[in-house]
Design a protein that fits this description.
Rhodanese-like_dom; Oxidized Rhodanese, domain 1; repeat; five-stranded parallel beta sheet; 3-mercaptopyruvate sulfurtransferase; single chain; EC 2.8.1.2; alpha/beta; 279 residues; 14 strands
Length: 279
């Protein structure tokens, strides 16, 4: 089975592969600042917009999973086929790229990887960059690709699934937000919402599975997930479904086979539980 991550040396060796689709999925960080790399990208990369190209714009919550039809249309517009070798990366090391990796897997794509360390690691490795230019949505209109999705709906957990699980405890929920947000002692970036956590959920801040913007070793990750008690039924959550995919991918590297994400995550839970801040 193909590893979910690829290093900079391996990617550099593939840049001339005509089947390669390199996607720059950089997005502003929800908490904290951005980096100096935000106006650069890897030569040959297609710069896409996570919310416009890989989310459902009509969704109730941020980063809602696109419909299969929306995903197919995006792939066709970008010239992606079912057999394309897709590599995704972002300018924060490992941040938004695992979300797009997960979406491709969710839609049945087999050959997709995350660049470990992202653009910062590419630059640190001495490889060249070019100025980042937003992709022209109309520039691929003459492509004749006809992407066909093989959707895995069981991987997308709804609010109702989570509510039911709070009483039945059929699976563990692991939350990628910071300890302060999880404990309710630090504010949410979405200022109208209270912080806190879903009952019986566990906390694994996504930074704990990374070391200098790259994933920790499989051995280190295995120890983290074993201590946590995660298993193949685990569902991952965060603020809006983005960083949940970082710890999900880390779980894959540790041998945990769950691909389940609570779409909407804490934002959906807090909104639908009416956990609003009171001024």
């Amino acid at each position: 089975m193909t590893s979910p991550i690829i290093n900079t040396k391996q990617l550099n060796a593939q840049l001339d592969n005509p089947n390669l689709i390199l996607l720059d999925v950089s997005t502003p960080k929800v908490t904290g600042g951005n980096t100096d790399e935000q106006n650069q990208t890897i030569p040959g990369a297609i710069v896409v917009n996570l919310k416009r190209d890989f989310s459902d714009p009509s969704g109730t919550f941020p980063n809602t999973v696109p419909t299969p039809k929306q995903f197919e249309e995006t792939c066709n517009r970008l010239g992606i086929t079912n057999t394309s070798t897709v590599v995704v990366f972002d300018n924060l090391g490992v941040y938004s790229s695992p979300r797009v990796w997960w979406l491709f897997k969710l839609m049945g794509h087999q050959d997709v990887q995350v660049l470990d360390g992202g653009l910062p690691e590419w630059i640190n490795s001495g490889y060249p960059t070019i100025e980042s230019i937003a992709w022209d949505r109309n520039s691929m209109q003459n492509k004749t690709t006809s992407y066909v999705v093989d959707y895995q709906p069981a991987w997308v957990k709804s609010y109702d699934d989570i509510v039911q699980n709070t009483s039945e405890s059929k699976f563990t929920i692991v939350d990628a937000r910071s300890k302060g947000r999880f404990d309710g002692t630090a504010p949410e970036p979405r200022k109208h919402l209270q912080s806190g956590h879903i009952p019986n959920s566990l906390n694994l801040p996504y930074q704990e599975v990374l070391n200098e913007n790259k994933f920790k070793s499989p051995q280190e990750l295995n120890e983290i997930f074993s201590t946590l008690g995660a298993d193949d039924k685990t569902t991952y959550s965060c603020g809006s479904g983005l960083t949940a995919c970082i710890i999900l991918l880390a779980g894959q590297l540790a041998g945990i086979n769950s691909m389940n994400v609570f779409d909407g995550s804490w934002t959906a839970w807090a909104e639908l539980q009416n956990l609003k801040k009171v001024d």
